[in-house]
Amino acid sequence: MILTQPDTPSGIARVRFEIQRIDFAAPEASGRQGGVQAGFPLWLARFELDRIDATSSDLWQAFFDRLRGRIRRFYGYDPTRRFPRSRRFGFAGLVRAGTTTPFTGSATSWSQTITSAGDAQITLGGLPAGLEISVGDYIGWKWDAAGSPAGTFDRRTMVRAVLPATANGSGVAVVTAEPPLDTALVPSGATAHLDNPMCVMQLAPEESELGPVGAGAIRGGGGIVAIQDLRP
Amino acid sequence: MKVIAPAALAALEAGTAIVTGAVEIACDPVVRIWGGYRNLTFDGRTFQPVGDRGLVQVTGGALGDAAQNIELVLSGIDPETLALLDASEVRGASAILWRLIFDQTGTSLLGFNVWARGRLDTLPREEEIGGTAKITARLETAARGLGRRGGRMRSDADQRLIDPADGFFKNVSYAGEKTLYWGGRRPARAGSALPGAGGGFGSNVLRGVQR
User: Which residues contact A25 (CB under 8 A, 6 or more apart)?
Assistant: First the structure.
């Protein structure tokens, strides 16, 4: 069972979604920093909570309880960027370019090309004409694990745009994004989407804590650290 | 000599390489794991993902130095690595460790080369409460077997291990190292270093060597 990240009245005070990369550095006396990167990047989420109201406090506590430490996963997302910045409140009223089909956030096609400079360019098709994708917007992928019923979408990952892009008249946008998608991991049948991009995350219990509850059932704060659980 | 693919060498030179490892342990069933997040096939083998980034930080040692064992620290809870503990014929199973070099996007495998071959030595398992669960696979490389100290020698006992009827060395006295002292006080250790030398000087010591 994969939980959803709680959407509480008091929200999340500060959030950081970071692409965690681990290096084996081999610095040289000349000052050149040699080295290699160990393994592949993962998303690392850090949520910080300030004083939170009683309702939110209960929701966070229930979330912690249900996670059972490391046992369960949750769909982690960046609450500051659930939709592209240009469409912060969703895609209501938009249609896919050249059609009258309402645009719900999913692209009809996607592909990734790696440029000679090593940039990952994601081509999304079936977007509304002129849809802007800003720097920092997320593109999510969702697919079903082997053996899961269709539409479960219990496998997720996402990338973050590093250059702005605009969908052309036929609804195609080419977005340069990080980290590059592993196309051998994400099946070609996966759905690329711009609404609520998420990744499956696992709590790091030793670095996560909810503060104590004081007068008026106000919770003193808390911090949550979670790491992406990426599986084929 | 390790032959590394030119594209992989170029990536290492440019500092853009993503490096991880793959291990095959030939127990029954064969355990094949690698440090990524999906199945990977190369060299006719398919490896299960364990997502362990540290699979390459396992070798130590220096050229001309004593050969060192290789330690692979594996997760103690992955089903792929747990299979190792239940596998039969795991003792002394041959193991191959590859180093895999990917391009900076992590999407294309530029090169793989055998980093070490060896045999599984010990397989200690550690579970620390509130800490980590890990299996450490110690691999004994061939280099260690060839260059080690205190291994098989040209002694009667060892020769009879090869062929019980072969008594070629039965009259040969053996000591790993003999130091002869000419004159002066006999060091305290000389008595044990020179078998049969007794407590004397000079001719006694020589007799010990001649036996």
Answer: A33, A34, A35
